[in-house]
Structures are given as C-alpha cells and as structure tokens.
Amino acid sequence: MRRAHRAFSMMSLTATLLALVVVVLGAYVRLSDAGLGCPDWPGCYDRLTVPSDPQAVADANVEYPQRPVDVAKGWKEMVHRYAAGILGLLAAALAAIAWRLRGDASRPHRLAIAILAVVTGQAILGMWTVTWNLKPLVVMAHLLGGMAVLGLLWWQTLRTQATRFRAGLLAYRRVRWSLSLALVALASQIALGGWTSANYAALACNEFPSCKQGDLWPDADFATGFKPWHGLGRDYEYATHIGHDAKVAIHLVHRLGALVLTGVLLGLVAVLWRTPGRAARRGALAVAAGLTVQLGLGVGNVVFDLPLWLAVAHNAGAAGLLLLLVTLIHLASPGLRR
C-alpha cells in the first residue's frame, strides 16, 4: 500500500509539471497563430503526424483547400496535442490509483476523478477550438480549463505528498477570505486575458499608460467586443468578425481588470504580512514579487508590440500566480487526517 501511495504522489507531481508545460505550449501555439495548423482533430490532415513529403502535402492540400499545409504550424499544434494526450493518460491512471486507495483520507479519490472529468472536458474544448475555427468563447474556455487542470493537480499534489508545504502553517481564519477573493480575481483576469487573446485585441491599445495617440479612453464598442456568440460556420482567426473599436473595448477592460487584481493582491500581501509566522511573511513577499513580474510582462507586451516570447511569458506568469495562490490556500487549510 505504501508503494501505491508513493507512486500516486510522484505521478501527481509529474502530471502537474506536464500540465504546466501543456498550458505554456497552448499559449505558444495560440500566440504564434498555429491554432489551426491542423484543420482537423485529433489527427493532422487525417494523419497521426504532420504531412511533410511533397506527395502527402499535395494530397492534404487537395483534401483541405481552405487550409494549405504549413508544416511548422502543424508540428506546433501536434506537439501540444501529444503532450495533452499524455496528460490525459496520467489523469486516468491517477483516478484509477486513487479509487484503489479511496479508504485512505489522505488520497482524495473524488478530486482525482474530478480532475479526470475536467481533462475530458478539455479534450472536447480542444476539438471544438479547431472544428469551430477558433471561436473566441471556446478558446477562452479552453484556456480556463487548462488553468483549472493545473491548479487542481497542484492542489492534489500538495494534499497528498509529504513536502515542506505543510497544511495548517497559516492562520486559516485570518487569511481565508483574502485568499478566496484573490483566487476569484485572478481567475476573472485570466478569463479576460483569454478573451483578449482570442479576439486578437492585445495590441488594440499600443501605448502605456495611454491607450493610443495619447488618449486614455478612446472610442470603444463594448457591446460588440463582449458579445459572446457570433454563430458557427465562420472563420474566427484574426478576429475579422469584429471591428477595431470592439478590440479596443476588450483591451481596456483587461487593463481595468489588471488594476482590480493588483488592488486585491496588494490587500492579500498586507493581510499576510500582518499574519504571524515565517510562512505568512514569505507568502507576502512571493505574491508581491509575482504581481510585480506579471505587471511588468503585461506592460512590456504593449510597449514592445507583443513579442512572442514575452506574450508566452505573460501566460506563464498567470499560471505561476495561480500555483502560488493554490499553495497559500493549502498552507492555510486544516491538516489532513493520517
């Protein structure tokens, strides 16, 4: 039984690290305009790999004339799918092991099964992302689902692995509301970031702190920018279905969300700093550092015209803040019954 416990803990940690890789790969694929590098699902031009030899490329171009083969983009998409597929297999194995250990309170089988359900939902959203031609609502939901899988796997790892991140190190009553509010604010901002990216609105405002041409609040079409459904059967790549004013509205709301999140996280830093214990002080410093880095990455994306590496780092920074908040919530939670 102890061997099974150890295997579960190590597999959970491995799955968490892989989920982080999948999230970052997903951002890279999306931001490098490779989301439709394979126009079908789960294969690529009806193959398990990207067609590369001249005859295979010619056949694929005949079969999918609306999406000519781009080998580089195709491989970006397929590497992401391979990694996501391995993550799905790990989630299934964890659920099976957790079910065997369901009599042990330190092995939450319900959480492992819930993670498998979310991963399954992610596979469906991944399929719709392609078959619905990068529909923004689906792209945003796919991003949120990936972050949810990452956060849940890390929570499972913390709750089941004997590490120095021990539950109960923080005074629960003092910090629980601040942590809950911070998690909601971060999730909301991640959703806004996903909506901004899915609608190609990251550079709708190309100045900071102003939006464009020195104007802090230019004309913006909020009704169109936040209309969730524009129908099926159309191509949403590059967001030609909405105008520039709608993209400006999306960008402005994302900036406002960043201000709200900054206020919430600074409030959390203040609460943690006043909470007794070394863990609380370290948590306050970690949140302050993570927030500073993420704000710098966001401003840098605007000032430097959205370089790919910086945009991907901004997504990774959001994932890092999520992992940090989950860790703090674990530290502030009651200890597990052994």
Tell me about this structure.
- This protein is mostly helical.
- The protein folds into two domains: 1-163, no CATH class; 167-338, no CATH class.
- The chain contains ten helices and no strands.
- The chain has helices at residues 2-31, 54-63, 71-100, 109-131, 136-160, 172-198, 222-225, 244-274, 278-303, 308-331.
- Helix 3 (71-100) runs antiparallel to helix 4, helix 4 packs antiparallel against helix 5 (136-160) and helix 9 packs antiparallel against helix 10 (308-331).
- The chain is flat, with a radius of gyration of 21 Å.
- The two termini are 14 Å apart.
- 41% of the residues are buried.
- The mean pLDDT is 92.
Describe the SSE topology:
Blueprint: H1 2-31, H2 54-63, H3 71-100, H4 109-131, H5 136-160, H6 172-198, H7 222-225, H8 244-274, H9 278-303, H10 308-331
Helix pairs in contact: 1-3, 1-5, 1-10, 3-4, 4-5, 5-6, 5-10, 6-8, 6-10, 8-9, 9-10
Query: What percent strand?
Result: under 5%
**Uncertain stretches of 5 or more adjacent residues:** none
The major sheet is characterized as: none
Round the Cα radius of gyration to an integer and report it.
21 Å
Overall domain count: 2
What is the terminal separation in angstroms? Answer: 14 Å
- Described by the principal axes of the CA atoms, the overall outline is flat
Number of E-type strands: 0
Number of helices: 10
- The helix content is 55-70%
Structural class: mainly alpha
Rounded average pLDDT: 92
**What series of H and E elements makes up the topology?**
HHHHHHHHHH
Summary, kept brief:
By secondary structure, this protein is an all-alpha fold.
